[in-house]
Structures are given as C-alpha cells and as structure tokens.
Amino acid sequence: MYHWSKSEERLNRYAGRLEGESLSFLVHYWGTIQHLTANSIHRHSFYEICYVDGGTGIYTDGNQMYPLYEGVAFCTIPGQLHQIKDVDGLNLLFVAFEPMERPSAQEVTVKYIEALQRCAVWTEHASDSPAIQIWKSMLLRSEADTSLPASLLPKLAHVLLKSFPSLFGASGSFESAPLLSSALQLVQKAKLYIRDNLGGPVSLPEVAAYLNVSERQLSRLFAESIHESFSSMVRTERIRAAELMLQHTRDPIKVIAERTGFSSVHYFTRLFTKFKGIPPAAYRAKWALEADHQE
Questions:
Q1: Which domains does the chain have, with CATH numbers?
Q2: Dihedral class, residue 81 (left if φ above 0, else alpha if ψ from -120 to 50, else beta)
Q3: pLDDT value of position 56
Q4: Which terminus of the chain, N or C, has less C-beta within 10 A?
Q5: Contact indicator for 23, 97 with CB cutoff of 8 Å
Q6: Confidence (pTM)
Q7: What rounded mean pLDDT belongs to the chain?
Q8: What string of DSSP letters covers 35-66?
C-alpha cells in the first residue's frame, strides 16, 4: 500500500523545518520502517512520537512496559530512558522533533512543550484519529497518481506535530496550558543562545552570564531538565547545524567546520563520523543522491 523507504526519504527532504505564525518545529528525522529491529536502552534530547502500523513488540519507558500492536501510538519525552524490544514484524512510523522558540511567540511555544510533558506515554486505537490520518496521508502510495504532492508536506507535517498533545490526551488546549517551569524556560533560552552563536566557542560562563545565572546553576539545570551536560548539548547542536549545511548548501567542508565552531576540519570530520556513522563529504553525496531520486 505504501512505498516505505521512499516515503521516509521524501518526508526528510521536504518536511524538516516547519514554520508557523506562532509555533514552529525543527524535525530531526522522520522514519517509516517495516520490520523494525529491537534497539538498546537510550535517551534523546528531543521528542519522539511513534505509531505502530503492524506487528508487535514491547516499549519500555523508564521502569514501565507497554505492549505494541497495530493502532498504538507512544511518546518519548527528552531525557527519558526507553527501548523497543521483543519485536515481531513491527512496522513503525516515527518522527523526532522539537519546537523552535521565537521571541514574539515564546508563550505559545512553552505552552505547547508543557502540553507534551503532560501527555500520556501510550495510547491505543489511534488509527482512526485525525493525527494518524494526516500522518498516513503524507506517505507515498503504491498506486500511481494517488499520493499527495510534496508541496503539501510542510503544512501537513506542521498540523500533525501541532496535534500530538490531543492525540495523547493532554487535557484542554495547549494554547491555554500553564506556562512551563522557569527552569525549563531557562534551558530553552540556553539552547537558542547556543544555536545562534555556534561559530564561536560558546562557553558555559558565557551562556550563564547571558541568562544571569551562575555556572553551577546552569550545569544543574541541564543535568536535571534534559539529562545532558552543557558540553554535550553544544556538541549536539554543532553536529545538527553542520548536517543541515551539508544538506542545503554547497559550502566547502572547511567552511562548514568553521561556521559551526569546530577547531579544525580534522576534528569536525572525526566527530561527525562518530555521531552520524559517515564522513561529512560522503554524507553530503548520499543526501544529494537520495534527493535526485526524488525529482
């Protein structure tokens, strides 16, 4: 019914940065995988929403275990240890993302985040929900000329991500949810500052001074809020920014390394390869080849 791998490639190409008037999203990756294999216990610094389109398995969230079967959706919040195991023919749709704050609409963004934090981890009978119907409408269908055009994907993806709190039963609307805690607001502001200043050293004292908090307090906020150190967050953001530049610019590798704050091309290449499993030049070539196949 669907072209699974081509659907994933198309979504990752056209629905990565989703802009809205008051709420925008950065999608780290989309996944549409048949017969997913089990994975090890791990955590993310972003949100990940999954929907089971077939097969069975077990999802662990901290010390809790949830059954996976067709029609189930589940949500992983940043910093939470989780795992998918005991799989049998598991077909999964998933998306990893985070809201992007804008100074003019910060209140809407933090309310959306708070709504996701209140969401249930697991829900069943999701196949007929508006959110999942939108998700499936974005996939490439096996039948010729029945798929939606790629130009609609950004708008549909934005609506999908915006609808996730209601899919998981967050009470009311996130537009009227209570504000995020002051600690998490500081972490969000720190993330934005890091992203806006990746070309420089971006030190802990610098960011702490910008936020008017002590270095010790900022380190503790990162550890307690997203279970990630400050240095790890900076490294993750540098890799993320470099990945986007490799995808969407023709800038030389040396220039990308400089603009994302790496001390040398050698260090950039080594770190990028470690985290992405492929050197920067090969990553760019692979991305370009996949993009050409979608034309």
A1: 4-176 (2.60.120.10), 182-294 (1.10.10.60)
A2: beta
A3: 96
A4: C
A5: no
A6: 0.65
A7: 88
A8: SPPP--SB--SSEEEEEEEEEEEEEEETTEEE
